[in-house]
Specification:
Organism: Bradyrhizobium ivorense
Strand order of the largest sheet: 1-2-3-4-5-6
CATH architecture: 3-Layer(bba) Sandwich
Strand content: 25-35%
Radius of gyration: 16 Å
Protein name: Cytochrome P460 domain-containing protein
Signal peptide: 1-24
Largest sheet: 6 strands, antiparallel
Number of strands: 6
CATH superfamily: Cytochrome P460
InterPro entries: Cytochrome_P460, Cytochrome_P460_sp
Pfam families: Cytochrome_P460
Order of helices and strands: HEEHEEEEH
Number of helices: 3
CATH class: Alpha Beta
């Protein structure tokens, strides 16, 4: 299977299942559901947001889909960076599951993480205006894992307002 067909298969899989796999979400009013350091929570209704792009992380053997709220989608469509306050991006990740009989084709397997970026240029001024959250089974991961978020975004995505994901047209 060619690389373009693999990407197409990944894109179709991510788009088709965006609303079908269960990612646990904590209660919005539960303080334990907030990510350490930034206080970011999994946003209500994110499963109905628009797809921004899909990707594959071969090192982690994952398929990923990034969805954005209306503010994010408008900023992408208008090619507006820096992103405005209120922009929220959510990356959903699943293990890749090979499709029997289709060499090189994959669908989503078990969910691995939900990762959230929230733009608030005042609250998160020290980290380029972005707050970060990583969640497994709806629960935030430890603070040590959150400490690496901005450093990686700063090192590799500074020229696009610290965001890796570009809009898939």
């Amino acid at each position: 299977m060619t690389l373009s067909l693999k990407w197409a298969a990944a894109a179709i899989a991510a788009a088709c299942i965006t609303a079908s796999l269960p990612f646990a979400v904590g209660h919005a009013d539960d303080a334990a559901s907030a990510a350490p350091i930034f206080g970011v929570k999994i946003p209500a209704g994110y499963r109905d947001w628009k797809l921004i792009a899909v990707g594959e992380e071969t090192g982690l053997d994952e398929l990923r889909g990034v969805v954005g709220n209306a503010t994010a989608v408008k900023a992408y469509q208008d090619n507006k960076t820096p992103f405005p306050d209120g922009t929220t991006l959510v990356k959903l990740a699943w293990k890749r599951k090979p499709v029997d009989g289709l060499n090189g084709a994959f669908v989503t397997g078990p969910a691995t993480t939900v990762q959230v970026m929230v733009k608030d240029s005042v609250k998160y001024a020290a980290t380029g205006g972005w707050g970060f959250g990583r969640f497994i089974d709806g629960k935030p991961v430890d603070a040590a894992q959150h400490e690496t978020c901005f450093a990686c975004h700063e090192a590799h995505a500074k020229d696009f307002d610290f965001v890796f994901t570009h809009y898939a047209h």
